[in-house]
Specification:
The complex is a heterodimer of chains A (about 280) and B (about 550).
Chain A (H helix, E strand, L loop, with lengths): L18 H16 L6 E5 L14 E4 L5 H11 L4 E7 H7 L1 H10 L4 E6 L34 H7 L4 E6 L3 H13 L4 E6 L11 H7 E3 L9 H9 L5 E8 L20 H9 L3
Parallel strand pairs in A: 1-2, 1-3, 3-4, 4-6, 5-6, 7-8
Antiparallel strand pairs in A: 5-8
Chain B lengths: L4 E10 L3 H15 L2 E7 L6 E11 L10 E6 L2 H7 L3 E10 L9 E4 L1 H4 L6 H13 L3 H12 L4 H21 L16 E3 L1 H11 L4 E4 L6 H14 L2 E4 L3 H13 L5 E4 L1 H17 L3 E7 L16 H6 L8 E3 L4 H18 L2 E7 H5 L2 E3 L47 E3 L13 H21 L4 E3 L6 E6 L3 H13 L4 E6 L1 E3 L3 H10 L2 E6 L5 H10 L5 E4 L8 H7 L1
Classes of the chains: A alpha/beta (about 280), B alpha/beta (about 550).
């Protein structure tokens, strides 16, 4: 029986009031719900405040480079299909520096649960615009407003035929935990974009701002209806839907190892025959 | 070159099948017992242009390409103009009768008459070559049956008929060309190019993961893995870019795979952050860098040895590494095996620095003795005290116990930030120094395990041709030529270019009368590295950076 205590208690380097605390709670709740012991879960993260998350949960961790949480997670999953693989990072790391990997991960559909802390700003580097900052929103480095249109990760994922696309809110911990557990159970790439306030650098999209707007999708939303999924993925402003936006039964990536590579030894007899074949 | 040897050059446009003719003939020669060195020169295009496939074949061992052409197979009219000045005194040109011989000695081959369709011209060319070399036709007809067997008996028969007709036609011409003498007995041989051998060495060492982004001339290492992936259980994945390729390899390595990554300079430039990550995470990765001339896109299909500086310093910050530089196809196999082991043993990025010439150079080699290979270091899947496990435990030699996650109750934590022994992020500057010292202690182990350069010949009071990587064969032949002229000459070859082993090679340099560094770059990168590490300055340098491999003649002209 796995309990929240198995995942430990840690001191963090996060700002008081940061949405990361709630996301951490939701992640642990999901892991407990999944019954995953810490040594069977792996978290691959990039760089940023969100990417520090697995330092504050007792799990296998590869805290790698900025933008690269997905390639490392892909390598882990392809080498050992028995591990539950999560990738976790912020919006700048995931959609900016790691943009190409995001597109490739959707195409591959490797069994990875991707948790993106989306606070629409670069926090650790102190407040620059991120790919999801609304166009026109002022920051210290974009004093005339973010000049480019915002990236909509969930709409892009739905358009590309990702197999599981969800949006959560850090202020709704139980709901978010349910999304993470559902994403982990889904056999394939699961994107969970988590709306999250940045108490230090985003003065627009605050807790109150989200609380007022976010609403949970009910049974009337059919996540297998592409048109409905696109409509909900694009809804923003006065009303913001959270929940599973889109789901499909696209087959998961099939070209990885069928058993952990770590316990295999090369077949020298076969290799001898292969070498002889070069005569 | 004596009559025991022949240098055959097949020239034509990309897409004309010159590689098919070249590979068929090379394989037939190897099966017949001859030694070969193949040099492939091609342009960065799919059709047209001018490409060559050169086979130097000998009844005795041969180690390098040569320049003079004895048999020139001209599949295009342009081939004659380009190679006219390279023909030896005894050379014959084999040209299409439709183009003519342009006044050169040779045979105007009536391809139209010999072939029912242009598709069969390759077989006709093989028939002409087989007859001139007095090769037993069974070597070629056997290959035809193997290569076309699955297309049906009719195709095999049609190809064999064209081959036999071309042989008969050639014999009837009574062309004056000395047959190859019977080969020296050397036992069974196989035909491999350098990149085949790198992949096979990796397979022997247990490489089971290849993430890649295609780039000439690094791709053929991966292609060889892919060819055998299903049988050997290798996971191969084409990544979205080189950054992903190397980071996937790091992830897979963390999870217990033994990865190999292969690329060329430009792709490697993108991988550099991943090299630094491998250094910090202490997660083994073996990276093949098949060099081609830069900067930037440079000459994409030609050869050079100008990425030593890049590979030596790739990655921000300081961390240990090893760099191997094979000089022959045999060394490609054995150093690839050794590189994987060194990466695992020292938990560091390890490099194999090869180049387009060696990558594409088919040679005859004895099948590798798999039974005599030493065991490869392996990570752990269990630890005695899972709760107290520390991935980066501080040890005397800097090597910490490397546990693979998922097999016991310990969790394995890796961080690209500076970290405590248990892998967690830290800004404790004392810990920083402890951990950097720990990582750098692995350099001492790598240095102790480093291969000293090989000495060929007696260096005492000699001209010592010093080189690294694929330049070995040409240097050996140049030294032999000097000795034949009565000059004392020897070769010092670095098959590992980092860490260096000055205690082993400084006395050799000291014995020589004159030392010359021969390397395929402009700046003299290994000469500079030796000077940086030892203060030693070579008496002379021979550099080549026109995109072509060294030959003995090239070196001798510049001594």
């Amino acid at each position: 029986m796995v309990t929240a205590q198995d995942y430990g208690e840690f001191e963090t380097a996060w700002c008081p009031g940061c949405g990361n605390f709630s996301i951490r709670k939701a992640v642990v709740k999901a892991l407990v719900e999944l019954g995953l012991p810490p040594h069977k879960a792996v978290f691959s993260t990039g760089i940023g405040q969100a990417a520090k998350a697995p330092h504050y949960i007792r799990v296998n961790t590869l805290n790698g480079l900025h933008g690269r949480s997905l390639p490392a997670a892909t390598g882990i999953r392809l080498a050992n299909p028995e591990l539950a693989v999560f990738a976790e990072s912020g919006d700048g790391c995931s959609y900016g520096e790691g943009g190409n990997h995001f597109l490739a991960a959707i195409r591959r559909n490797v069994d990875i649960t991707y948790i993106v802390h989306d606070n629409q700003v670069y926090g650790l580097t102190k407040g620059q615009a991120s790919p999801t900052t609304p166009q026109g929103q002022q920051t210290k480095t974009q004093p005339h407003g973010a000049p480019s249109a915002a990236f909509n990760p969930v709409a892009v994922a739905v358009t590309m035929g990702a197999s599981f696309v969800a949006r959560g809110f850090a202020g709704e911990i139980d709901h978010l935990a349910g999304l993470i557990a559902a994403g982990a159970r889904h056999p394939g790439f699961a994107l969970i974009d988590v709306l999250q306030p940045c108490v230090s650098f985003n003065k627009v999209n605050t807790y109150a701002w989200y609380k007022e707007r976010c609403y949970a999708l009910g049974d009337d939303h059919d996540p297998t209806d592409f048109g409905a999924a696109m409509e909900k993925a694009r809804q923003w402003g006065e009303r913001i839907p959270i929940g599973i936006l889109w789901k499909s039964d696209r087959p998961a990536f099939g070209a990885g190892a069928k058993a952990p590579l770590a316990t295999r030894e090369p077949d020298m007899g076969a290799l001898r025959e292969i070498i002889e074949g070069y005569a | 070159m004596g009559a025991s040897a022949v240098n055959i050059v097949i020239g034509g446009e990309a897409g004309q099948g010159l590689v098919t003719v070249g590979e068929f003939l090379s394989r037939a020669l190897v099966r017949a017992g001859y030694a070969i060195v193949v040099t492939q020169d091609y342009q960065s295009r799919i059709r047209g242009g001018h490409n060559t496939f050169a086979i130097r074949a000998d009844s005795a061992p041969v180690v390098a390409p040569t320049e003079g052409i004895d048999l020139l197979v001209a599949l295009s009219a342009e081939t004659l103009d380009i190679h006219r000045s390279d023909l030896t005194d005894r050379a014959l040109v084999l040209a299409d009768a439709a183009h003519g011989l342009a006044g050169l000695p040779g045979l105007a081959v009536p391809y139209k008459e010999l072939c029912p369709k242009p598709l069969y011209e390759n077989m006709a060319a093989l028939g002409v070559l087989g007859a001139l070399l007095c090769l037993d036709p069974a070597w070629i007809t056997g290959l035809i049956a193997e290569k076309f067997g699955r297309k049906g008996d009719e195709i095999v028969a049609a190809n064999s008929q064209v081959f036999a007709a071309a042989m008969d036609w050639t014999i009837a011409q009574k062309a004056a060309f000395a047959c190859l003498p019977p080969p020296e007995a050397r036992g069974r041989r196989v035909m491999l190019h350098g990149n085949d051998a790198i992949a096979l060495g990796g397979l022997a060492a247990g490489v089971d993961f290849c993430s890649f982004y295609p780039m000439t001339p690094g791709t053929s290492v991966i292609q060889t893995y892919i060819d055998h992936a299903d049988r050997m259980g290798v996971v191969c994945e084409q990544a979205e870019d080189e950054i992903a390729a190397v980071i996937m390899a790091v992830g897979a390595s963390y999870a217990g795979a033994r990865p190999m990554v292969s690329t060329s300079g430009g792709g490697f430039a993108l991988m550099v952050e991943g090299v630094s990550l491998s250094g910090m995470l202490e997660t083994p990765v073996t990276i093949v860098v098949a060099q081609r001339p830069g900067p930037a896109t440079g000459l994409p299909t030609r050869t050079e040895q100008a990425d030593l500086d890049l590979v030596l310093s790739a990655g921000h910050g300081e961390f240990p590494r090893a760099i191997f530089a094979p000089g022959s196809v045999e060394q490609c196999f054995h150093l690839s095996y050794r590189a994987v082991d060194a990466a695992e043993r020292f938990q560091s990025p390890v490099f194999i620095l090869t180049d387009q010439f060696l990558a594409d150079s088919f040679r005859d080699v004895a099948p590798f003795d798999l039974d005599s290979l030493p065991p490869v270091a392996r990570p752990l899947t269990a630890v005695p005290d899972p709760a107290g496990y520390e991935r980066y435990a501080v040890t005397g030699d800097g090597v910490s116990p490397r546990l693979i996650p998922g097999f016991c109750e310990a969790t394995v934590v890796l961080d690209s930030d500076e970290h405590t022994p248990d892998g967690h992020i830290t800004e404790d500057l004392g810990v920083r120094v402890t951990m950097q010292d720990k990582r750098m202690r692995k350099h001492d182990g790598l240095a102790k395990a480093a291969l000293p350069p090989d000495v060929y010949g007696d260096p005492d009071n000699a001209t010592l041709l010093t080189c690294w990587g694929s330049t070995l064969g040409a240097a050996l032949e140049a030294a032999q030529a000097l000795r034949e002229k009565g000059e004392k000459a020897a070769v010092l070859h670095f098959s590992q270019v980092w860490p260096l082993t000055p205690d082993a090679f400084m006395p050799v340099l000291g014995q020589a009368r004159r030392t010359v560094m021969v390397e395929g770059n402009f700046a003299g990168q290994l000469a500079r590295l030796v000077r940086r590490e030892t203060g030693y300055v070579f008496d002379g340098r021979v550099n080549r950076y026109d995109g072509l491999p060294f030959t003995a003649a090239y070196i001798l002209e510049r001594l």
